[in-house]
Specification:
By secondary structure, the chain is of the alpha+beta class. The chain has one domain: Lipocalin. It contains 1 helix and 9 strands, in the order H-E-E-E-E-E-E-E-E-E. It has one helix at residues 2-31; strands at residues 42-50, 56-65, 71-79, 82-90, 92-95, 98-106, 114-122, 125-132, 136-143. It is globular and about 35 Å long. The relative contact order is 0.17.
Length: 146
């Protein structure tokens, strides 16, 4: 009986954590609607797809400039009933109308370890690829305009 109670408490704590993360991200998403859209900066929405197992889900990203050399890519992703957020701080390169970016981030053991990312933004289209020890796939998003 005690095991069930402990399991229920852990499950409740995890659910509260997941809802809390989504709530914070949703607030940031709404605030980002008024930020200036230039190049890669702005709100993006689309999907991700794993090339390994064909899992897919909804994907959002808020990109903001943190310095003249680095940008914050704040992702929110969903798979089935699970959602999570993570940040990537990446340098970008702008050539004519194309913005490119690449970098590496360790998302922790439970999320698959170290991931390599590279991608580009051209106009209102955002394309990226990811690769890790256990998974690889792509992101496809479009700029969100209110």
């Amino acid at each position: 009986m005690m095991r069930r109670i402990r399991f229920g408490m852990v499950l409740l704590a995890v659910a509260q954590l997941l809802v809390g993360c989504s709530s914070v991200y949703n607030q940031k998403w709404k605030r980002a609607a008024v930020q200036t859209e230039k190049g890669v900066v702005g709100r993006w929405e689309g999907s991700w797809l794993s090339a390994v197992n064909q899992h897919t889900g909804k994907l959002k990203c808020i990109v903001s400039e943190t310095s003249t050399e680095e940008y914050d890519f704040h992702y929110w992703a969903r798979w089935s009933v699970f959602s999570w957020t993570y940040h990537l701080k990446l340098p970008i390169e702008e050539i004519d109308t194309v913005t490119t970016f690449s970098g590496t981030k360790n998302l922790g053991k439970l999320a698959g370890g170290a991931f390599e990312f590279d991608g580009k933004v051209e106009g209102d289209e955002f394309e990226a690829r990811y690769n890790s020890k256990f998974d690889r796939g792509q992101f496809e998003m479009s700029r969100v305009r209110d």
